[in-house]
Amino acid sequence: MGNALYGVLTAVMAMSLLLMLILVFGNVVMRYVFNSGIMISEEVARMTFVWLIFIGSVLAFRAKQHLAVNMLMVRLPVKQQKVIHILRQLLILAVLWLLIDGGWAQTIIGLSTVTPVAGVPIAVFSGAVWFCATAMALMILADLYVAIRAPATPGNASKFMTSYDYVEDI
């Protein structure tokens, strides 16, 4: 299921990028050729860009492509790697909880305010934060479940430093 969601999010990112390209390029052509423009294009492109960034963050988080320094971790015994991994994931989960809570509060607040041209609630922007933090938190919870259950043996050491693909084994 994780790979299917990964594919769907990748497709959504591609479609978002295509929509942004069409809207912005179309607006430029309309302004220079026809001396008019697409009023809604700026707002939709901005919303699409925000969602593109946060979906990309979720995909990068899943693939562990965010910045990490593991030079100390690889030198530790496997049991200590496991303990540090679990503590690190709990710390990340705590920060993600702050984003989930704040993102949800901002989404509720943004429901009553709309964009000037499109009339779309501003909650669309903070909803992207909430979605991103929630998706990452779910991955962390699945990772913690696997990490706690996995014995601290040299064969499992890679589970404490590689991508979330092994979560599929649950």
UniProtKB/TrEMBL annotation:
GO terms for molecular function: transmembrane transporter activity. Belongs to the TRAP transporter small permease family. One of its GO terms (biological process) is C4-dicarboxylate transport. InterPro entries: DctQ (IPR055348), TRAP_DctQ (IPR007387). The complex comprises the extracytoplasmic solute receptor protein and the two transmembrane proteins. It is found in: Cell inner membrane. The chain crosses the membrane at residues 7-32, 44-63, 83-100, 120-141. Residues 20-149 form the Tripartite ATP-independent periplasmic transporters DctQ component domain. PANTHER family: 2,3-DIKETO-L-GULONATE TRAP TRANSPORTER SMALL PERMEASE PROTEIN YIAM. Part of the tripartite ATP-independent periplasmic (TRAP) transport system. Keywords: Cell inner membrane, Cell membrane, Membrane, Transmembrane, Transmembrane helix, Transport. It is a multi-pass membrane protein. The keyword Transmembrane helix applies. The keyword Transport applies. This is TRAP transporter small permease protein. GO terms for cellular component: plasma membrane.
